[in-house]
Structures are given as structure tokens and as C-alpha cells.
User: Fold this.
Amino acid sequence: MLADVCESHGTTLPAAALHFPYRHPAVTSVVLGMRTPAQVKQNLDLASQTVPDQLWADLRDRGLIT
Assistant:
């Protein structure tokens, strides 16, 4: 269900998951676990994606996040 909402907003679940913690005002940084150069590249790619604000509103409306 989360992936479907993400897809309807033109983003992916991994991109939304990476951006989610930054929505909380107390969060100033996020540490990602990476072991390979490919994982570094993947996380950089995900971090550079724009996640629309409406995605979060839709997830809240569906009771999937608070």
C-alpha cells in the first residue's frame, strides 16, 4: 500500500523512506548504513530525488503515517 501511494506521486518507497525522517523538526541528520560503493551511489540517487509534499498528506489521510 505504501509503495502504491508513492508510485501515484511519481516516487519510490525507498526514496520516501530516506526522506521521511527529515520531516520531523527534531531530526537534523540521518545516518545511512552502507557497505559497498553501489549502496553509496544508490543512497545519493535516492537523496537527490524530490518527494512531493502531497505524498505525506495522502499517507496521513490513509492512516499510514501520523
